[in-house]
Every structure is written in structure tokens, then in C-alpha cells.
Amino acid sequence: MPSPTRFCSSFLFQTEKLNFLLDCGPGVSFSILRHRIDPELIDSIFISHCHTDHIGGLFLLVQMMHLLQRRRPVNVYLPEEAVTGVRNYLNTCYLFPERITPRLILHPVTPDFRFEEESVTIRVVANRHLMGNESVIRELNYPNKMQSFCYVVDVSGKRMVYSGDIESSGDLVNIISDADLLISECFHATVDELLPLALEKHVKSVLLTHIPPELEGKEQEILQRARKAGFEKLTIAHDGLLMEV
Ligand SMILES: [Zn+2]
User: Fold this and answer.
1) Is 98 exposed, middle or buried (CB count within 10 Å of its CB: 0-12, 13-18, 19+)?
2) Which residues, 6 or more positions from 222, have their beta carbon under 8 angstroms from its beta carbon?
3) How many angstroms is it from 14 CA to the middle of ligand 1?
4) Who has the most CB within 10 Å: 52, 55, 218, 229?
């Protein structure tokens, strides 16, 4: 659900040699401009799944890069099931690959995907976020494969887990142990489920994102609840938030 105070999901990771976006929700181009980030520095874009709040900002971002005459190619890693559709939609938007700069390289991501570059390792873990569509897909013979991924990022001995969207906190149980930072949505898993799990799994720091409407404006209450539960290192995301891991 769009919010009057927040754009949709998109996170810029900056390491010594590599800069990449995790998800590309509507609003990402505005955020990039508002926070004076040079779009030229984005090497790659990783998409967790194809709900519009996670991929819908990609097309305007490509258009903006084109208008800024970016020459360097952009690597877009996205669920394998989406590659053809995204290519077709770019053409529908008159962003023809033969005419635009930068060159977009669409990489299909499947559950065995692993990215290794400049001491950054990224692996995907499939989750059950889209599985609720199973009966409709089967009944109507849609080609969708319900590909939805969490991303586990390792950089210089630090581990960061990005939940993407999940079906429940059960999707995180096996991937968050000892993480330095867990960026978790709290729409499909409640704060009351996530925090005890983070404590149990010795997660060092949690950033809550994808805030449901009923929690809007209740940041202080959530932080208080976390402290009571013994979890000190909780941050609630807002647009433009900067964190160092
Ligand atoms: Zn979703």
C-alpha cells in the first residue's frame, strides 16, 4: 500500500568498490535526486520479487539514467520468471535496448544464484511470499513461478540479510543466525514475531521496513516494546536513513 510519508522498498548498499540497489520500488528515482546520490555510481540492481512496490521504480530509473546520458552498463539481477516481461515492458515504454544508454544487462536469478565480485558475495534464498497464488496459477495455467527471494550479503566479514517480502517469519529462521544486520519487512511477519527470533538467532542489529499502515506513527511504541523484550539495536526505516554496518 503506498504511504503518504514513505516511498516503496529500495536500499542502496555502498561498499569500498561496489554500489548496488536491493529492490527498486516506486520513488527510488526521486530519493536518488533528493539525497544527491549520483546515479552513475550504481553498479547493479537486485530485485527480490516482482510485486510492483519492489520493481515498479526500475523503469523510471532506467529512463532517468538514459536522460542523464549514463554510458556505463547497468546489471539488473531479477527473478528468472520476470526477464522476458521486463524486457517487453521496457520496449512498451519506448526504452528500446538499441536506443537507450546505458546498456541494461538483465541477469536471471534462480534459487542457486550466487554473485561474487569485489569481495562482495550475494546469495539468494527462496521464500514462500508468493505461494498464496498457487491455486490461481494452476487453475488458470499462468506461467508464473512464484519466485521470491531473500538476499544474504557478505562483505568483509560482515553479514547482512535482506528479507525482501516473506510469507512469515519462518522464512527467516535458517538464514539470519549471527547476522550483523537484518533488514526485515514487518508487514507479513509481525514485530512481536521478528524480535524474539532475532534475539534467539543472535542478530546484532535489525532494521524494520515495509511498515504496515497500522504501525505508521507508532515508532516510539515499537522501540519501547523492543527494549522491553531485551532487543536494543532496533531501527525503524525512514526515507533517506543512512546506516553503517
Ligand atoms: Zn511482495
Assistant:
1) exposed
2) 191, 208, 215, 234, 236
3) 24
4) 55
Where residue 98 falls (left for φ over 0; alpha for ψ -120 to 50; beta otherwise) is: alpha
99 C-alpha vs ligand 1 centroid, how far in Å?
32
Distance 187 CA to ligand 1 centre (A): 10
CA torsion sign for 231, 236, 241, 245 is positive
Q: How many A from CA of 232 to the centre of ligand 1? A: 28
Cα angle for residues 26, 29, 33 (degrees, 5° grid) = 145
196: preceding bond cis by omega (within 30 degrees): no
Count the Cβ atoms, other than its own, within 10 Å of residue 234. 20
pLDDT beneath 50, residues of the chain: none
Phi-psi region of 182 (alpha: psi -120 to 50; beta: other; left: phi over 0): beta
The reply to whether the predicted model has a pTM over 0.90 is yes
| Integer Cα distance of 209 and 206 in angstroms | 10
Closest CA to 31 of 20, 41, 39: 39
Q: What is the CA radius of gyration of the chain?
A: 18
Q: Which pLDDT does position 232 carry in this prediction?
A: 86
Ligand 1 centroid–CA 116 distance in Å is 26
